[in-house]
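Might you be able to review the protein record set out just below?
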Amino acid sequence: MCAHSGSPPLQERSICTVDDVERLPDDGNRHEILHGRLVVTPLQTKRHQGRALRLAMQHNIWCQTHTARAVRSPGGVYVSPTNWSEPIITVNSAPDFS
């Protein structure tokens, strides 16, 4: 299993996958995998969430005229077994709505 806090030093860590992240306990942090490496960050502050909301509203205005949609977190984007991201805002074009 991939390492997280309290685990072996970085050089001893294995490649992390989406399955590994799904097995991690809910510790109140955001867990992402970038090229097989586990990245753990704290959740957004209220100030950050307010800014993200305003940005998402601006994205929605743009999306209405460009056949796209903006989606706010929570939620993740599966890229590959070793790449999983939890962006604050995701903009998808019409073919990617599914």
Summary: The radius of gyration is 16 Å. The first strand starts at residue 29 and ends at 34. DSSP finds two helices and six strands in the chain.
